[in-house]
Amino acid sequence: MSPEPIRHHIVSVLVENKAGVLARVAGLFSRRGYNIYSLAVAPTDDERFSRITIVVDVESAPLEQITKQLFKLINVVKISELDPARSTEMELLLATVWVDAGSRSQVIELVGIFEGRIVDVSPGALTVAVAGDPARVDDFEELMRPYGIVELQRTGRVALPRLDRQPPRLRSVSGRAS
C-alpha cells in the first residue's frame, strides 16, 4: 500500500506577541488567495513570542511563495515547515451529542476508547472532549455523527517537530582500575 499523498503544508511561524500580528498574517493569506485549512495561535513559553500553526492546502499555495511572503512581515521571527511524517500533531474536539437512555452508555464507551472526557451532562445530551492526532479526532467525529451532533468545535492543529530519537553517544572510560 503506497503512502497517502501529502495534501497540506504545516507551517509553524514564530512571531512577536503584539497586537495586530495575527490579522496581518491572515490578511496576507487572504490577499494571495491561499486556502487556510487550519489556524491555531497561542503564546509560547517566552511571553514575547507567539507560535502560529497554519495548515495550508498544497494546491492553493506553493510553500516557497508562502514563506517569502511571511518573511516580509515585520513581526515574523522564524518560519518552519513541519513535515507531517516528522512532526507531532494534535487537535482538540468539543462536541455536544444527543443521547437517550439507550445510547448514553454507547457514547460514554466510545469517549473512553478514544481517551476523551465528558465535560458536561444533561438528561438528553453529553458534551465530550477528545484530543489527539487529527486523523483520530476525525474518526471520533464520524462515530459521533449517527447519535446526532448538536454542536461541534475543533481547535485546529498544533504541531511541533518530532524529537531526535538517536541515543546519546557513550564515551569510553579508559584507565579504570579492575
Give the overall pLDDT as a whole number: 89
Which second-level CATH architecture of the largest domain applies? 2-Layer Sandwich
**Share of helical residues:** 10-25%
Distance between the termini: 55 Å
CATH topology (level 3) name of the largest domain: Alpha-Beta Plaits
3D shape: globular
Low-confidence sequence ranges? none
Radius of gyration: 21 Å
The amount of beta strand, in percent, is 35-45%
- Spell out the helices and strands N to C: EHEEHEEHEEHEE
Q: How many structural domains in the coordinates? A: 2
Structural class: alpha+beta
**Count of helices?**
4
Explain this structure to me?
This protein is an alpha+beta fold and 178 residues long. It folds into 2 domains: 8-82, ACT domain (Alpha-Beta Plaits); 88-161, 2-Layer Sandwich (Alpha-Beta Plaits), CATH 3.30.70. It is 24% helix and 38% strand. It contains 4 helices and 9 strands, in the order βαββαββαββαββ. The strands form 2 sheets. Strands 5, 6, 7, 8 and 9 form a 5-stranded antiparallel sheet that branches. Strands 2-3-1-4 form a 4-stranded antiparallel sheet, with helices on one face. The longest helix has 12 residues, at 21-32. The N and C termini lie far apart (55 Å). The model has no long low-confidence stretch (mean pLDDT 89).
